[in-house]
Amino acid sequence: MKQTIDKLENITDYIEKIMNDQQGVGASVAIVNGSDIIYSKGFGHSQIHPENQPIDGDTLMSIQSVSKNFMALSIMQLVEKNLLSLNDEVVHYLPYFRTRNKEQSDTITIRHLLSHTAGLPADLGIANMTAPNVKEIFSDTPTEFQEALDYYNLTEEEIDSIKTREDVTKWFQKVELEYPVGKGWNYCTDAYVILADLFEKVTGTKWETHLEDEILAPLDMERTTSDAYTVEEGANSAKYYMGKDQTETPFPKNSLSAPIGYLYSTANDLGKYLAFHLTGNPTVLRPELVKEMQNPIHLVSEEWRFGSEVRSYGLAWFTDNYKGFNVVEHGGGQMAVRSLITMVPALNLGIVVLLNFDGTAHHDICDRIMDVFIDD
User: Fold this and answer.
1) What per-residue confidence (pLDDT) applies to 132?
2) Neighbours of 4 (CB within 10 A)
3) Which residue of 79, 110, 144, 370 has the lowest C-beta tally within 10 Å?
4) pLDDT tens, 173-195?
């Protein structure tokens, strides 16, 4: 017991030193051992204007691309119910799905979309550009919004015409694949909107309703939500601050594209989520399908490897090796949002780090926690 206390004190000291350089912004951290959250602590503040507000393990924060894992888990629940197979072509369920070359896109499977191996380009922009406050996001200069449209080869009329997830799927007819289907890897965030469209067509249920009833409720994740308004106005929720000047950034919200990165959670709720992936809960998903999500499918592209020779992607999980231990993780980030959930299965260890400022402190904190438990 004392050894564990010493480890956690070591971790607290390290995080406090990092946060001393951040002048008030915050970090929320949770550590899981098997099915138990053994550490939950906030450092700094969730909001610094108009006054400082302390951050803790229950502070609601944007989790950005960690949201994709919940979309993937929802698809795996349909696999378990035999409502679809990962090897089914997307067009079987969404006959209007196609890219510029229909012959190519007709061979894209659900597994390809989940694993980012469909051949789709990375920088499509359509999902993020449908955010209701997109003009506020690109408002640093009078021309920044138009520059963003030009960068993504989009028009304002084009993004205004996107009203539903089906609209996003149909938009893909203008896309040219960058490599043969299944023969490469490219992180296409927008593809996860197609997965939500597919999910809703197969089930006749809004994805957010399923998420609430079939994932969040069984895992007792009471503070995880897709409701941006509730979070933005919540008593214990984060605002986000960019750069040394700690400029508050526009609140991250986009209900249409919730599956790609617009869910909100807490370190404690995500700790419960990691406990499920580490130890299982057959009422949510049977163990072999949980394991299948974590199995590597393809090496990631060079810019995503961070020097690793083995960093790969499964079904909404990155897999890697750290000091001889297999690591399963997913992060997220946008402007001043940073999120990271990490598992070291051999140690039954789960780590959650959420920040409301930019930089790489979430990775530094996670690495330190792994070091402390590896060096046992």
Assistant:
1) 97
2) 13
3) 144
4) 999 999 999 999 999 999 999 99
